[in-house]
Design brief:
Distance between the termini: 58 Å
Number of helices: 9
Largest sheet: 2 strands, antiparallel
Structural class: mainly alpha
CATH architecture: Orthogonal Bundle
CATH superfamily: Winged helix-like DNA-binding domain superfamily/Winged helix DNA-binding domain
CATH topology: Arc Repressor Mutant, subunit A
CATH class: Mainly Alpha
Number of domains: 1
């Protein structure tokens, strides 16, 4: 997209892309951090790795961000940085406090997931062999300790 097109607003194609799950959230996340690796986004956002990869590729094609190499811990890392169009969208998103809203949504979803896991764990027999497959994220230590004896014999 040229500078003139940016001044005239986004195209219908870009607007459609921004409505796809997580796209505008990626703009916000990259804008907040200055640059992000695929791994950074995968760890932060509630999206699959393949969806993030597709969005990164398409966003690059639409000129929302560009890919660069950046030194991180003496290793060249592939990072994504907003272009002027991406910065413009990020500014609008900041005006709407989208970063805070996205973070609140992620926190809420993670709390729900953790509570769902807790219900499953607390409703399961103590000798269930599949219990170790349930991810124990951000649980109280006392809750996790309840299941430790089951794994001590293995």
């Amino acid at each position: 997209m040229s500078e003139n097109e940016s001044e005239q607003g986004i195209s219908a194609e870009v607007a459609d892309f921004l409505q796809q799950k997580g796209t505008l959230e990626m703009v916000v996340r990259i804008g907040e951090r200055g640059s992000q690796r695929h791994t950074d986004l995968r760890n932060e956002l509630l999206m699959s790795s393949s969806t993030i990869q597709k969005r990164l590729k398409t966003g690059k094609q639409y000129g929302l961000w560009e890919q660069r190499l950046e030194e991180r811990d003496d290793i060249a890392a592939k990072v994504y940085m907003l272009t002027s169009l991406g910065d413009e969208l990020f500014e609008h998103a900041q005006d709407e406090e989208l970063g805070d809203w996205y973070q609140s949504r992620r926190d809420t979803v993670r709390q729900i997931q953790n509570r769902e896991r807790r219900v499953i764990l607390e409703s399961s027999p103590p000798d269930a062999n599949w219990i170790s497959e349930i991810t124990m994220e951000e649980h109280d230590l006392s809750h996790e300790q309840q299941f430790l004896p089951q794994f001590a014999d293995n």
